[in-house]
């Protein structure tokens, strides 16, 4: 029994598949992309280890939904990465968060809402495929995270 097939002929556009077949459906789909960044902070009015300056390797996960375009993409993962790198990460990575973010106590709960609002703003500027941020998760440690969801905003 043959388990693996060697592809001999790659599918060709306009010969093996028509352009109007590239978009399989018209349903809203959620895509996710995650990033990490390193930053330092401390918490005000908090009695515990986090009241002193310390750092984390944070992980942020974005859930973005929209409708597929004519080739079946909701959003190119590279576009999410570009917004992250150019507009959001610059305020976070290797920063002292108490100074680089707007005035707030730099809790995961406050930061995740700020990150959500930033991504939502820049996705709206793309104005394509009815894109919207559905959720953002911000992991402060591998087992502790805060989450902001569209329905809570």
UniProtKB/TrEMBL annotation:
Pfam families: PTPS
Catalysed reaction, written as an equation: 7,8-dihydroneopterin 3'-triphosphate + H2O = 6-carboxy-5,6,7,8-tetrahydropterin + triphosphate + acetaldehyde + 2 H(+)
Keywords: Lyase, Metal-binding, Zinc
Named cofactor requirement(s): Zn(2+)
EC number: 4.1.2.50
Pathway: Purine metabolism; 7-cyano-7-deazaguanine biosynthesis
Signal peptide: none
Matching Gene3D superfamilies: 6-pyruvoyl tetrahydropterin synthase/QueD (3.30.479.10)
GO molecular function: 6-carboxytetrahydropterin synthase activity; metal ion binding
Recorded family membership: Belongs to the PTPS family. QueD subfamily.
NCBIfam families (alphabetical): queuosine_QueD
Protein name, entry field: 6-carboxy-5,6,7,8-tetrahydropterin synthase
Taxonomic lineage from the root: Bacteria, Bacillati, Bacillota, Bacilli, Bacillales
């Amino acid at each position: 029994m043959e388990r693996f097939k060697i592809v001999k002929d790659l599918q060709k556009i306009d010969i093996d598949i028509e352009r109007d077949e590239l978009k399989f459906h018209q349903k809203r789909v959620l895509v996710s992309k995650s990033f990490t960044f390193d930053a330092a902070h401390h918490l005000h009015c908090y009695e515990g280890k986090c009241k002193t300056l310390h750092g984390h390797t944070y992980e942020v996960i974005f859930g973005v939904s929209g409708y597929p375009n004519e080739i079946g993409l909701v959003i190119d993962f590279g576009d999410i990465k570009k917004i992250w790198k150019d507009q959001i990460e610059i305020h976070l990575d290797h920063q002292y968060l108490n100074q680089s973010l707007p005035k707030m106590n730099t809790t995961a709960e406050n930061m995740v809402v700020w990150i959500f609002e930033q991504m939502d703003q820049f996705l709206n500027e793309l104005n394509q495929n009815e894109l919207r941020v559905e959720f953002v998760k911000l992991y402060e440690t591998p087992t502790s995270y805060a989450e902001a969801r569209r329905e809570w905003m």
